[in-house]
Amino acid sequence: MSHSLKPTADIQAAVHADYLHLHANPELSMQEHQTAAYIESRLAALGIEHFRCGGTGVVGVLRNGPGPVIAFRADSDGLPIKEATGAEYASTAVGQLADGTEVPLMHGCGHDTHVASALGAAAVLAQGTEGWSGTVVLVFQPGEETGAGAAAMLADGLWDKAPVPEVVLGQHVFPFAAGTIHLTPESAMALADSLEITLHGTQAHGSQPQDSIDPIVLGAHIITRLQTITSRELDPRDAAVVTCGSFHAGLKENIIPDRAVFTLNIRTLTEAVREKVLAAVTRIVTAEAAASAAPQPEITTLYRFPRLFNDPEQTGNVATALASEFGEDRVKLVAPLMGSEDFGALGDAIGVPNVFWMFGGADPSDPAPAGNHSPFFLPEYRGALDTGVRAALAGIGHYVGC
Amino acid sequence: MSHSLKPTADIQAAVHADYLHLHANPELSMQEHQTAAYIESRLAALGIEHFRCGGTGVVGVLRNGPGPVIAFRADSDGLPIKEATGAEYASTAVGQLADGTEVPLMHGCGHDTHVASALGAAAVLAQGTEGWSGTVVLVFQPGEETGAGAAAMLADGLWDKAPVPEVVLGQHVFPFAAGTIHLTPESAMALADSLEITLHGTQAHGSQPQDSIDPIVLGAHIITRLQTITSRELDPRDAAVVTCGSFHAGLKENIIPDRAVFTLNIRTLTEAVREKVLAAVTRIVTAEAAASAAPQPEITTLYRFPRLFNDPEQTGNVATALASEFGEDRVKLVAPLMGSEDFGALGDAIGVPNVFWMFGGADPSDPAPAGNHSPFFLPEYRGALDTGVRAALAGIGHYVGC
Amino acid sequence: MSHSLKPTADIQAAVHADYLHLHANPELSMQEHQTAAYIESRLAALGIEHFRCGGTGVVGVLRNGPGPVIAFRADSDGLPIKEATGAEYASTAVGQLADGTEVPLMHGCGHDTHVASALGAAAVLAQGTEGWSGTVVLVFQPGEETGAGAAAMLADGLWDKAPVPEVVLGQHVFPFAAGTIHLTPESAMALADSLEITLHGTQAHGSQPQDSIDPIVLGAHIITRLQTITSRELDPRDAAVVTCGSFHAGLKENIIPDRAVFTLNIRTLTEAVREKVLAAVTRIVTAEAAASAAPQPEITTLYRFPRLFNDPEQTGNVATALASEFGEDRVKLVAPLMGSEDFGALGDAIGVPNVFWMFGGADPSDPAPAGNHSPFFLPEYRGALDTGVRAALAGIGHYVGC
Amino acid sequence: MSHSLKPTADIQAAVHADYLHLHANPELSMQEHQTAAYIESRLAALGIEHFRCGGTGVVGVLRNGPGPVIAFRADSDGLPIKEATGAEYASTAVGQLADGTEVPLMHGCGHDTHVASALGAAAVLAQGTEGWSGTVVLVFQPGEETGAGAAAMLADGLWDKAPVPEVVLGQHVFPFAAGTIHLTPESAMALADSLEITLHGTQAHGSQPQDSIDPIVLGAHIITRLQTITSRELDPRDAAVVTCGSFHAGLKENIIPDRAVFTLNIRTLTEAVREKVLAAVTRIVTAEAAASAAPQPEITTLYRFPRLFNDPEQTGNVATALASEFGEDRVKLVAPLMGSEDFGALGDAIGVPNVFWMFGGADPSDPAPAGNHSPFFLPEYRGALDTGVRAALAGIGHYVGC
């Protein structure tokens, strides 16, 4: 990789400024209007061709002679969390949920570092065209947190509008030491499915259970039964989770209610296991309702996250490039995470390899940095952005560097 | 019993008027301010000595020479139900819950017939003093629906302020044929205990159950376990119910919450069984929390209803008096009800016998009259009130008639 | 009732001798060959017409002029229990189970007192024909313990061969004070159904649950679910029990077995509740198998006991007759027992009233006599037999006495 | 590795003969008397120093000049399975269980190939001393199937009597294609713990659950609760199994028994997870007994298998040596197995690396060879033994080859 693909001090300063601006102005998923406008203005300033895609998504395209076409994705949405980091530049922004409720907003998952790092890498590439050859598609994706953003960009014709890449790269900040990288070949993060299940019973006075079909007792049996999916139906080596995150039924202690509503969050690492688990959930919910002589429950999908499958060969290649940038001991192969990401959909949609890595954003001397989605989550931004920009360039440079 | 203890046409008309007024003006439990004022005005009009007790309770005392002192109770509260009977005189009243919420109100349990019948009986007694001898204490009790009213009157010194009776009588309307009476010697209605139980867990992301103590799974195991109290711990011949009327936990499908709250309603027919069930609930909840390595749950009592124990001897006597009034075939001994009443506390507090009966308020030709607490509950008021007044007088007359 | 229907001292001595003989020679259900022969010889000695019915059943018929025909039943089988009473006349008998196993035998349920009392009553009736008029059918029934005997006699044409009675009487000894009687109008003992349920799964190594359908986990969910039948599906006032008395599955800790077998014993007091419970068992077992994706389990009936319904009017009449014999305070109406008896089938088969009572057989000064089916069960035989004979005569005499 | 470390045709013939002899003469775990004698005779014929250790274990020591000391283990026990392979040389042997029961015996797990291959490798080493230098300790271990053999040899002072090696090697035949090798770095097979748990209740008649503490209902709640250990308490990525392989309680459907006994088989891949699971089992069993007001259950350990941890560095080295022998595409890194082995104890006891691999024993053209422990398990012995001998020599040769 050429030495020319390094950020200058000016670019570093711009990355810091971008980060501080973004950090102070988080927006909700699929509502990243200001963020998109900001990205557009920055790409324009860098003279990079760009267009909107998927509403609040922005695509920048750097065409620089013959060579590979590759894509690099940065996600841009914030979270409905009240920032409690105490940082001078902490967010005080508020947003509005679909139902009109005002909520405090925070870049609680570090997507601000993703966008700033991508803009920094774009600046380096735009200014250092002699150091590389090919085409780089910068995908600023909205709505990662809700699993809606990648799908929206694809639905809006992302790969019709942008050059089709031979690989899609992406990265995510985590609270391990800045200057270090984690990768997972193959399944890197979990497929996720969220379901809402409504049980129907028959209301009766609490003193007359014989006139009821009790949906709470039915629900209790379903919850206990669902535990057997991971304990008895899957290969013990197949990581999977079936979590019931909420269960709501009844208003009064002496009235057996006529319904119960609960939600499930299902995590798996392969499509085969996912389908096995979903089928088992349906089978158990249906049969338990029959055991209660209750009507058929309703099972509705709230959302799903696709697989994040890192192509083993390309991941090996990128790992080597990252090791060359950060040092072998700073690049670590790790076990899959049970968290989810919609990044994988971008490459899967066109059958090209994905490579996704995690970069450290924490002060290496901090013994217990707060985790993503915590109100206290706060990357040490200079180190985090330095890592993010260099990792982006190392990954991109592997393909288009000369 | 003397013939003099019969309502005149004028009294019947007044009873109808009282009923229609009360029916249109229901009030919430322990908020029966207008109702109490109305009762006071009616007692005043009849020249009956009276005083407030327990806030919105009213006690009337008819002293009529030597003889037994007996008490007769009528409860006066309405319910937060929107009346859907379509009656001309249907309630359109609204009330305010403790939290300020406005709710529609309805005399959905027929307490309006109780008060009107008691006033009618009072009128007969007041006007027909030559037909009886003794003292009759009329207890217009508030707050039956919440189990708070009898306790409030007792706490306010009911039996210090009123003459101490040798028996306490009471009655309740039900949707069986007007002109008929049901009684149950000994345990007549259920003791009721309502509990709220808060389970404490440890919150974690849905993908990381290992960091959680899952209060929903804990709750499901508790609910299934609680079924064994009636199925395995009690004599099958001991009627008892443990109902979980509500269960609430969690906000999002992918976050394991840190708590779950559920409520129980427990019905038993004897104090011994009640104590066995309550001890079993505590034992199971405590042990299941230990099985989950969860902190000790909190168990709080929402309210309780005492036993309603009909003294067998006095109940036999009253049954005979009622049979003489309505005909043998119209007075029926029935099995205990699993519903609850706080009437029993009135006599139990001073160790005197209670006698409580149910009187029919439905048009005998109605094949399926709506039940108590239904928005469609509507006694055929002429028949109901005729039955209620006559039954009250028959019961009272058994003791003070000449 | 005439004074002539009293045992003479000679008859009392014969009753004692019969008892001691029977007690020392118990036989298994439906194998009462010696017992039947003994009964025949005793009836022959009394000159009473008799015949075999249902294998080891014996029917004696006393025809004594015009008047009612009534039946009186005494059951005759012993139990496979090793007597541990230490009585001089204790049984040392052994019997052979269907599979050839030798077992010690004992009259552990007191049927020896039933037969001896019935023979004593027969002697009184046979010798005192001037004191009564009508026909008495003495039904010495085998196989009560297994629920097979009444059915066998009915199948063998009992009421074709014997005069059809207008009422069937019966009695059973219990360890309360001799000289006292307990009766229950209407449902007196439980209907019982015993089922064996075989769950089918798929065997796999314990380390590979994904290859199994685990019948033990399935069984555990069924057992917990069955608790909800009594806790949620029945009126709390309907006494019922669903007991799982055995559960067997698996040979090795590290092999998930391919089947589990468990047995249920179901007790109810009415046919309607019985059918509700049996339907619920089938529904739950079927649905839980479906929840496990397991094949349909097999549900087989091991045996059933019919209802024992005491006709209220005739029971009242007999109670009066018994009270006249033993004193009002010695005859007590009691709650139904959850134990079972096949006596009720005898009258139900021909639609005539049954009346069954329990007579005390314990020394009144014994504070804790051993219960029926205990190896220590031992009536104080003089008192027990005196009570049994007098009660039989009082009951019979009510119908045929003059 | 020197070409001299190859079996000659004579040695191959001897390996075949050894195999056929061993196959026809399987013995039960820790009863391998004939097998041990046979091994001794073969080592003696080869002039190899040897001694008994751990009862039916045999240790051979080849000392051949300076150089590394390494150990190679072959396990020797058969299984109580009736061979159904139809092979001419199939076993018809019988053995005697501890309780005297006669059982058919079979080398159903292929340990005959292990011993024959080890003897073949020993022959090559003994005859080709010029081709290697160092000391090779051949450990013919009994009792692998019961987890007792490695422990017995260690308890008998294995590493006091034999030269202490710097690495311990071992191999196992599996029904994949002969000529191929599978290895797993780090955790290769599961730690296993087998427990027997006795629940104590209180016996009562099935109609009187109130007098019982029902151990079957308690057991059902424990079994359902145990499912939550893997579903809720472990990291979803930590493979673990908790299997209940047997559950036995009760003799009669109408008697609630006084106890239930069940067994658990627990599989984990690390000591940390193992301890977490065992602690959870104890916690749940204890708390559920408390929920039933039952006495403390008894938890006894039936046996345990230790970890099989392949030293990553040495496993890499051995994999390279095996790839050089069989070809890179014939040596495959595979996921851990949830089955168990006591091999790991041999190196762990003295803190030296273990390396264990699996060799293919099936005819490559067989689409569905029967699995280990099946009555139809039958390696294609020529290919299996060729693979076993060559793999043993490749592994050993890596350390002592020149």
From TrEMBL, chains A, B, C, D:
UniProt name for this protein: Amidohydrolase
Residue span(s) of domain Peptidase M20 dimerisation: 194-290
Annotated positions binding Mn(2+): 109, 111, 145, 172, 373
Matches recorded under NCBIfam families: amidohydrolases
Keywords associated with the record: Hydrolase, Manganese, Metal-binding
Cross-referenced InterPro entries: Amidohydrolase, Bact_exopeptidase_dim_dom, Peptidase_M20, Peptidase_M20_dimer
Coiled coil: none
Gene Ontology molecular function, alphabetical: hydrolase activity; metal ion binding
Highest rank taxon of the organism: Bacteria
Organism, as annotated: Glutamicibacter soli
Cofactor info, note text: The Mn(2+) ion enhances activity.
Pfam families to which the protein is assigned, alphabetical: M20_dimer (PF07687), Peptidase_M20 (PF01546)
Cofactor(s) named in the record: Mn(2+)
